[in-house]
C-alpha cells in the first residue's frame, strides 16, 4: 500500500477519525457519561441553532417586505391600466354614438334636424316630459316633432331662447295617428298606460294583429269622438311594438298595447325635426 499518496492519506485519516469517534461514543455510553458529554455540547449548539434561526427569520422577513412592495407596485400599475382602459372604452362608446347619430341623419336626408342633449325634466311630476338644451335661438319651435335614433320621442310644447320642453309619448295628453307595419291597420296611439306603455286604440276588428308587430306614425289625420287631430308628426317614425292584443266581443274596435321603442329614462340625445310642416284639417271643416 502506498501511504505516500496524499489523497489516500486523507481518506485514511478520515476513516481513523470516524472509527475513533465511534469507539469513544461507545465507551462513553457504556460508562453512562454520554448524556453529560452531550450536555456539554448542547448549549453552544443551541446558541448556534438559535442564531441561525434568527438569521433565516430575518432573511424571510426581508423577502416578505420585498414581495409586498412588488405586489403594491403591481396593484398600482393594474389600477392605472384599468383607469386607462375605462377612458378608452368611454371614448369608443362616444365615437360609436356619434357615428350612429350621423348614420341615422343620413338615412332620412329630407328632414332637417337640430341635435339636442337631454338636460333634465320639468318641475310638474304629473307631466311626462324632458328638457333639452336647444331653444328658440336654435330654430326650435312649439309643435315640432322630436325623435331619437331608436324612434319617436314626443313633441315640443314650450321653448325659451336656449331650452325647450318636450312632451313624451307616454304622457296622457299624447294622441298620434299610427299604422301597424304588417297589417297596415290604422289606429290612435294614446299615452298614460301603466309601466310606461302605450295603447293603440280604434283598430278595426278585422285587422289580424300579431305580437311584436311594429307600429309607426301614419302621417295622417284622425278623428275620435268628432274631434279632428292634426297630423303633427311625419310618417314612418318608429313608435314601438305590440306586446298585447285586447279584443272584446261587444266592442266595435280592438286595442293593442305597445312597448315604446325608446327608453325614456336613458335618453341622452334627441333630434328636433325643424322642417316638418303639419297640416291642420280644421281649415276644411266649414266646407
Question: What topology does this entry show?
Answer:
Layout: H1 6-31, H2 34-107, E1 113-120, E2 129-132, E3 145-147, E4 152-159, E5 164-168, E6 175-180, E7 186-190, E8 198-204, E9 214-217, E10 222-224, E11 227-229, E12 238-247, E13 253-260, E14 269-273
Antiparallel strand pairs: 1-2, 1-14, 2-5, 3-4, 3-14, 4-5, 6-7, 6-9, 7-8, 8-13, 9-12, 10-11, 12-13
Structural account:
The protein has 287 residues and is an alpha+beta fold. The chain has a domain at 114-279: Thrombin, subunit H (Beta Barrel). The protein is 35% helix and 28% strand. The protein has two helices and 14 strands, in the order ααββββββββββββββ. It has helices at residues 6-31, 34-107; strands at residues 113-120, 129-132, 145-147, 152-159, 164-168, 175-180, 186-190, 198-204, 214-217, 222-224, 227-229, 238-247, 253-260, 269-273. It has a six-stranded antiparallel beta barrel with strand order 1-2-5-4-3-14. It has a six-stranded antiparallel β-barrel with strand order 6-7-8-13-12-9. A two-stranded antiparallel ribbon has the order 10-11. A hairpin with an 8-residue loop joins strand 1 and strand 2. The longest helix is centred in the first third of the chain and has 74 residues, at 34-107. The chain is elongated and about 125 Å long. The model is unreliable at 223-229 (pLDDT under 50).
